[in-house]
Design brief:
Structural class: alpha+beta
Number of helices: 5
CATH architecture: 2-Layer Sandwich
Number of strands: 12
Shape: elongated
Number of domains: 1
Distance between the termini: 56 Å
CATH class: Alpha Beta
Order of helices and strands: HEEEEHEEHEEEEHEEH
CATH topology: Ribosomal Protein S5, domain 2
Length: 260
């Protein structure tokens, strides 16, 4: 029996008994710490530590052309980098399928909740603000989706908008970016036929199925299913209910992280 098999059996046995590292419950987040303003030259930034997972989000705004099908709206573009220092399996180079999925899941929750009114990013005919959300994974220990979403939303909440005057971007006397809705996400995984919230790296290694649910205070806005396993309809319904409950904790963290 190899080490991986022994580790998997150990984790499965503990989870079957309802035991997780740190003594937390099956549907509990790890300790979360936030630091705002980590990137001085960004319009907004935030670092989130979720257990040993560390994610940094930076916001930049630039002037560009609107999309042809939405000529009176700005745009949001989200990218993610899995830095080699974060985990031994990450390599420098072009985006991987994992980093692309991470960026898309975070982007979808923010976009579907209308966190930012894209019409208010319109400047004038042929010009609009392009809002870039860049996610950097600094240390991996599971659940990048929720940590990344939390970092991105806190960074957006503390973003200061430049002005565009006389064909120049002016970064003086800045005003806060207006946020309409506050999205959060909760990611659940099935390990040993037991559903867990916020899996750490060891738990994630042996997950059979994963479901990320993004919501704001009013409704579910997006879902993303991952891995080969499945969830029943009844399980999904119970996880939606759990998401609205657990997202209250995340919103308290977001609210406390606002810098006026």
């Amino acid at each position: 029996m190899n080490i991986s098999t022994i580790t998997e059996q150990y984790i499965r046995d503990r989870i079957a008994k309802g035991i997780r590292d740190g003594g937390r419950g099956l549907l509990s987040f790890r300790d979360i710490a936030v630091e705002v303003g980590k990137i001085p030259n960004a319009e907004g930034s935030a670092e989130v530590n979720m257990g040993h997972t560390k994610v940094l989000a930076g916001i930049k705004l630039g002037v560009g052309e609107p999309m042809r099908d939405k000529p009176e709206e700005g745009t949001i573009m989200t990218g993610a980098e899995l830095l080699p220092l974060a985990h031994h399996s990450y390599d420098a180079g072009p985006p991987t399928a994992e980093s692309i999925e991470l960026a898309r899941v975070i982007d979808r929750g923010i976009r579907a909740s209308n966190a930012v009114d894209l019409k208010k990013l319109f400047i004038e005919d042929g010009k609009a603000w392009n809002l870039f959300i860049d996610i950097y994974v600094l240390n991996y220990d599971g659940n990048l989706f929720d940590a990344g979403t939390l970092a991105a939303v806190i960074a957006l909440q503390n973003t200061k908008m430049p002005r565009y005057e006389d064909k120049e971007v002016i970064r003086e006397n800045l005003q806060k970016l207006e946020i309409q809705n506050i999205p959060t996400s909760c990611t659940f995984a099935k390990v040993a036929d037991t559903i867990l919230l916020d899996t750490d790296g060891s738990e994630e290694d042996f997950s059979q199925a994963r479901l990320t649910i993004a919501n704001d205070e009013n409704a579910v806005r997006a879902m993303q299913k991952g891995l080969m396993g499945s969830f029943t309809v009844r399980e999904v319904e119970s996880l939606v209910e759990a998401t609205f409950d657990k997202s209250k904790e995340l919103r308290q963290i977001i609210s406390k992280s606002r810098v006026d």
